[in-house]
Design brief:
Layout: E1 5-9, E2 11-15, E3 18-23, H1 30-39, E4 43-46, E5 49-55, E6 58-63, E7 70-73, E8 77-80, H2 81-85, E9 93-104, E10 116-118, E11 121-122, E12 125-126, E13 129-134, H3 140-155, H4 160-176
Parallel strand pairs: 3-9, 9-13
Antiparallel strand pairs: 1-5, 2-3, 2-4, 5-6, 6-9, 7-8, 10-13, 11-12
InterPro entries: Hpr_kin/Pase_C, P-loop_NTPase, Sigma_54_int_dom_ATP-bd_1
GO molecular function: ATP binding; phosphorelay sensor kinase activity
Protein name: HPr kinase/phosphorylase C-terminal domain-containing protein
C-alpha cells in the first residue's frame, strides 16, 4: 500500500462489495442517502471525510480514526450505526469503484439516455464518476444501486443505447425484407 493518504469530502459506502463515494454540496442529502443505503443492508465506511490510499492501482477508502460508524443526519443529529443497525452496518475500508456527485434537481444537460460522466482522479488513479440528479421524490438508494450495476455492465462492454440501436436496426432490416 502507498504511504500517501489523501482525504476528500464525501460519504463512502460499501454497496454490494463495491466502494461508492457520494459527493456534492453541503446539505444536498449525502448522509440521508447513506442512511437509506444502510437500511437496505449496505455498509457505511466513512461520513463527511474519507481517507484514501492507493493499493495495487486501486484507491481504498476508510474512515478517519475515532469516527467509525458515525453518521450525522440533519434533524436527528449524530447517530452510531453500529448501535442502531448492528456491526454489519459498518465496514472498515473498501476499494473505490464509482463516484457519484449528487446535484439537486434536474438540469437541461441531462439527456436521459446516458449518465453525465465527470473526470475524477486521485493519487494518479482514475475512477468512473457521474453526476446524479438528487430529489426527495426519487428512490435514491435504488438509483445508487442501479448506477453501480450499470457501471459494472459498462466496464464489461455493455451499453444499453447501443443494444437498443442494434435491436431497432435488426427490426428495420427484417421489415425491409
Amino acid at each position: 500500500m502507498s504511504d500517501s493518504i489523501l482525504s476528500r469530502p464525501g460519504v463512502l459506502l460499501d454497496v454490494h462489495g463495491h466502494g461508492v463515494l457520494l459527493q456534492g454540496d453541503s446539505g444536498v442529502g449525502k448522509s440521508d442517502l447513506a442512511l437509506g443505503l444502510v437500511a437496505r443492508g449496505h455498509r457505511l465506511v466513512a461520513d463527511d471525510l474519507v481517507e484514501f490510499q492507493c493499493c495495487g492501482g486501486e484507491l481504498h477508502g476508510r474512515c478517519r480514526s475515532g469516527f467509525e460508524g458515525m453518521l450525522e443526519i440533519s434533524g436527528l443529529g449524530l447517530i452510531n450505526l453500529k448501535q442502531l443497525y448492528g456491526e454489519g452496518a459498518v465496514c472498515a475500508s473498501v476499494a473505490l469503484t464509482l463516484v457519484l456527485t449528487l446535484e439537486p434537481g434536474l438540469s437541461r444537460d441531462y439527456d436521459g439516455l446516458q449518465p453525465v460522466a465527470i473526470d475524477w482522479r486521485l493519487l494518479d488513479v482514475a475512477v468512473p464518476a457521474w453526476r446524479l440528479p438528487y430529489s426527495n421524490q426519487r428512490d435514491m438508494p435504488l438509483l445508487v444501486e442501479t448506477a453501480l450495476r450499470l457501471n459494472r455492465a459498462r466496464q464489461q462492454g455493455y451499453d444499453a443505447c447501443s443494444d437498443l440501436q442494434s435491436r431497432l436496426s435488426s427490426l428495420l432490416h427484417k421489415g425491409a425484407a
